[in-house]
Amino acid sequence: MASVNDVLTLFFQHPGHTSFGMSVFNLSNAIMGSGILGLSYAMANTGIVLFTILLVGVAILSLYSVHLLLLTAKEGGSLIYEKLGERAFGWPGKMAAFGSIIMQNIGAMSSYLFIVKYELPEVIRTILLWIICVEYFIHFFLEWYLNGNYLVVFVSIGIILPLSLLKNLGYLGYTSGFSLSCMVFFLSVVSYIFHDTHQSTGVQYEPHPDEAEMCTPKYFVFNSQTAYTIPILAFAFVCHPEVLPIYSELRDRSRKKMQNVSNLSILAMLIMYMLSALFGYLTFYDFVEAELLHTFTKVYTFDTMLLLVRIAVLTAVTLTVPIVLFPIRSSINTLLFSGREFSWIRHLLIAAAILVFNNMLVIFVPTIRDIFGFIGSSAATMLIFILPAAFYIRLVKSVPLRSPQKIMVSPNSALSAAFSPYHLPLLPAVIHRAHHILTNVNLFDPGLTNSLLFPLLSHQAGIFLIVGIFFMIGSLTLITLDWIHNPPGSNKGH
C-alpha cells in the first residue's frame, strides 16, 4: 500500500489542468461510441421492457464499479490501472489490468473504424452521384475512392494519428464536445424519422402482409440473438480505462468531483441510449440490423437527411478514436517503459503501431456484431466486474474485512472471474482472497446477518450486479452456440 507521502506527491505535485466540463465531455465521449448503433438491435432481441431493465442495470453497475475504482485509486495511491493491479496482486494483477484495457480499447477502436469502413464509401458515393450523376463513370474511374479498406487507412493516417499525438487528453475536450454534438444530431434525426414515419400517410417502409407480426412492438423477447444484449450493453457503458487518466488530469481533483463527472456522464449517456434504441426499434421493429445506419441505408437510399446523419456519426466516431487510444498507449508505456522520460518518437511509434493493428482487424474481421459480442463478454466483464471489485477488496484497508461492502463485492469478483477468458492471471489470488473472507467471517452471527443481509437486499447495485452475472453466463453460452451454428460472416448482421 502506498505511503502518505506517495499519495501527497500524486495529488499535489502533479495537479490536473482539465476543467470539470471538459472532463465530462471526454468521459461521455469515451462512453458513447459505436455501441449506440447496436442498441436498437439489442432491443429488438429482448423486447422493450426487458431491454430497459437491463440498460438501467448495466448503467448502475458501471457507476458502482467506477465508485469502487475511485476508492481503490485513493487508497492504493495510484491513478494508473496497471499499478493498482500490481499493488493488489503483483505481476498477475498488473497483467490482468493490462490485457483487459488493451482488449477493450482495441475492440472499441475497431468498432469505430468499422463504421468508417462501411459508411464513408456511401457518403462519398452519394456526393459524387449528385455532382457527376453518372454511376458508371464513378465506378470506372474512382473505384478506389469507394473501397472502405482504403478509406479507413486514409482516415487513420490523415485525422486519427495527428490527434493521437497530442500529449494531453484535456486538449481533446473540444473535439469531444463536437463529437457529442454530432451524436445528439444523430439522435434527433432518428427521433424525427420515427415521428415522420408514423405520421405520414405513405409509410416508407411497408412489410409484406405475412410479416405484419414483425412490425408489432414486443416487450419481452428471447431468442438466440438475445445472448448479444448483455455484451452490447456492457460494451456500450465501459469507460473504466479512461476514468483514471481523466481523473489524473482533472483540475482541483477529488474523488467526489470525479464521481460527479462519472454520474453526469453515465446519466446523459443512459438517456441518449434509451431514446436512440427506442426510436430506432419502433421505426424498423424486427427488421433493424446490428448496425442501425445500415438499416437506414436500405430504406432511405441517397436521402439528404441520411447523408447528414452519416457525416455526423462518422465525425463522432473518428474524433473518439484518439481518446480511446490514450489508455492503450499509457498501458504500454507503464508495462514496457516504466520510469523512462517522455519521448516523442516512442509516443508516435506506439500510436502508429496501435492504428496499424486496428486497421488489420477492421479489414479482416467480418462483422461489427462479432466485435460487440466477443469484447463485451470478455474484456468488458473484467473491467466492469472483476478488476474494480478485486482491487477494492485487496487495497482498501480502511474498510474492515467483515464489512458489508467487501463481502458484497467479493462474490462479484469471484463469480465474474469464473466466466471471463482473461481471468487466468488473477483467478488464484481472487480465490485465495474469497476463501480468506469466508473463513474469517461467521456467516451465522445474528449481528452480521442483520448488518449485511438487509443492506445487501436494499442495495440496487448489488442486486443488479448479481443478476448481471447470471445474464452474462447465459450470454456467453448462447454466443458460443450461435457462433457454432452460425459462423461469423454467415449471418445478416453487418
UniProtKB/TrEMBL annotation:
Keywords: Membrane, Transmembrane, Transmembrane helix. GO terms for cellular component: plasma membrane. Its main location: membrane. The chain crosses the membrane at residues 20-41, 48-71, 91-116, 123-142, 148-166, 178-195, 226-244, 264-285, 305-326, 347-365, 371-393, 461-484. It holds the Pfam family Aa_trans. It is a multi-pass membrane protein. GO terms for molecular function: L-amino acid transmembrane transporter activity. It is found in: Membrane. InterPro entries: AA_transpt_TM (IPR013057). Residues 18-398 form the Amino acid transporter transmembrane domain. This is Amino acid transporter transmembrane domain-containing protein. It comes from Gouania willdenowi (Blunt-snouted clingfish). The lineage of its organism: Eukaryota, Metazoa, Chordata, Craniata, Vertebrata. The gene is slc38a4.
